[in-house]
Batch of 2 targets.
Target 1
Amino acid sequence: MVDRFDCIIIGGGIAGLQAAIQLGRYKHRILVIDAGDGRSTLCRSYHNILGYPEGISGQALRKAGQEHANRLGVEFVHGTAAKIENTGAGEFLVRMEKINTAFQGRRLLFATGVLDRFPPFPELYPCLGTSVYVCPDCDGYETSGKTTIVMGAGDAGANMALAITYWAEKVIYINHEGTPVSKQLLRKLTEKQIEMHEDRISSILADHSCFQGVQLKDGQRIYAEKGFLAFGGNLVRSQLAGELGVKLHHNRHILADSRTKMTNVKYVWAAGDIAAHSEQVTIAMGDGSQAAIWIHKSLVAD
Ligand SMILES: Cc1cc2nc3c(=O)[nH]c(=O)nc-3n(C[C@H](O)[C@H](O)[C@H](O)COP(=O)(O)OP(=O)(O)OC[C@H]3O[C@@H](n4cnc5c(N)ncnc54)[C@H](O)[C@@H]3O)c2cc1C
């Protein structure tokens, strides 16, 4: 027999957990399916969140969110949702990868997020959110008055380097993959006196969570206090939604109604980084709550 839920939330990151808490408080039967590998598992410290002036890690927020949702009777399953069927009349069948299990839901919320494309240097991971960042709106401030290395590729990296000049004392751009940079951006980099290196990074210089710079393939060491990553080509995890007929933006983020967060497919919602808007924790929380309120309205209307 297949277990049946009022709503299945795919993704137990910030948006999914906030939605689960809100839906739990409506006393619906809620399942969160989570693969445990999202952006909120990576960031060691968020600094732009109300109530946490000293910062809070993604792991801490997730742990608190899971405990809170658990207390409200929300159920969790660890694993990856691999296939979803819309069986019609408000019933969705979600099949799992590797586990021979399926779950049925009357409503579906995608909160699957985005995976950044990072270069393969394990030394970067302890620095994420503490001295190496990905989002200028979130962490540009952290580079104030500091020498900052942007590690990136082509135009994505060049645009990040330009954005960081708003705060940083000095910006150095390492075009690690050697992807061409447009003439217009090259001109702007020169105007802003951004030092650019067309060489591969051979290693990251770091003392645990404290980024210190990079060593290039030619042996040169470049020192800095802060780092930014901008390689482009992030994985927007909207494939399952797309297969259900959910409309996607050209950048593959899910298009959802700005008021209800419902997609074009009836009874399917989207919240957090997977939806088309700026990618931040507080927005993911807001989206999750808003989607949950409208999911509740739709459940009680049935
Ligand atoms: C290094 C770094 C620093 C950041 N710093 C800041 C900051 O300072 N301030 C700020 O506001 N934001 C910051 N962000 C962005 C912030 O982390 C995201 O906006 C936030 O995590 C979005 O939450 P989400 O729930 O949409 O996605 P996520 O947190 O990525 O969660 C998505 C979840 O969905 C799960 N999932 C995906 N597909 C499936 C599937 N098929 N089946 C089951 N589960 C699935 C994943 O495993 C994951 O747990 C940072 C991000 C990074 C990487």
Target 2
Amino acid sequence: MTDLTYRFAPAFQAPTGSAIRELFKYLSLPGMISFAGGYPATSFFDQPNLAAAAERALRDSPVDCLQYAATDGLPALREQLAALMARRGAPVAVDDLMVTTGSQQGLDLLIKVLLSPGEHVLVERPTYPAALQAFRLAGLAVDSAATDAQGLDTERLAEQLSTQPRGSIRLLYCVPTFANPTGACLPLDRRLALLTLAAEHDFLIIEDDPYGALRFAGDEVPSLLALSAQVDGAAGRVIHLSSLSKVVAPGLRIGWLIAPAAIRQRCVIAKQTVDLCTAPWAQQIAALYLADGALERALPGLAQGYGEKCARMLAGLEGLKEVLEVSPPQGGMFIWGRCRGGVDATQLLQRAIEQRVMFVPGGAFFADNPDASSLRFSFAAPSHVQIDEGVARLRRSFEL
Ligand SMILES: Cc1ncc(COP(=O)(O)O)c(C=O)c1O
């Protein structure tokens, strides 16, 4: 008999998978309405233009689509992404940027290249769970920094850092614009304060920005990357990740990473052992889609569409204000909430599933001391009718 007792790597001895992916099994229950995953609305996928780009890519550049490509990405796509960054107020050279298989891969490559087991990273409290999972599987110590309705509380962060030797925190990971899970957008003064802290305490910042283009209220705020040149000692400390997942389609798996040359070159080497290159056909489709201006044409409608869904959801949740407080976002896909009276969101979810509605209990988003009453709703995927019905079901879950 073959011995099936394997010797797993330490991080996989007793691994815990994503709490959000665990919820997937309930999605197939008949009639379920999900406010759980951060999925874009399928009705917003620009299928005609993507189909045209896919067809044109294969017809006009079959070899680029079907052959292996350079690990850092097809030049045609990198040019388009550099132009996109310029439109977002952060001009970069084509060579400053590499294509990744979703921005999730960018994070994974950075962890491989920059950090060793046991080193300390800082995350927002709460933060994106797949980042927590990636840090933990890499054997890193994850510390968390306080946030409020505007995002990272930089005054408290300054106090926290002042108690530690300079350099003991190697890196801070944050989603400063329409955060997952809180939807918060960090104001300009705090962005500048954060960059100053990075310079003073000698840490790098990973700015994860998949949602920044989906603003439906308030004024634009420059990215940390764009601001880093203005703050003494901060240039070169911001590594920027972004993605087409939320604005075009996650099925393309196109993300990108912008980092100083020494870091980027090492990420390219790390990527060689992960997937050799991001699917070239998907890259070519993305390049043609962007070159055609299709994303620029689609963005205003996307932001408006998500803004309307968010407004609809907030209007519905207003009726639950005795039992639930929520933070209205200015963009992105999420509403963060907190049950009043110490109601446990995981127990609430059990009742909600019986009513055929889902959300994500907040515990999964905390590196430590989870807030059991918190929860995250995504308003992005359900239709207006489903939002109304889903909120009515939530109401019943609260036994109102
Ligand atoms: C903050 C954040 N970063 C990264 C990702 C992953 O994006 P991608 O599909 O580009 O890998 C997500 C997806 O939900 C996210 O919310």
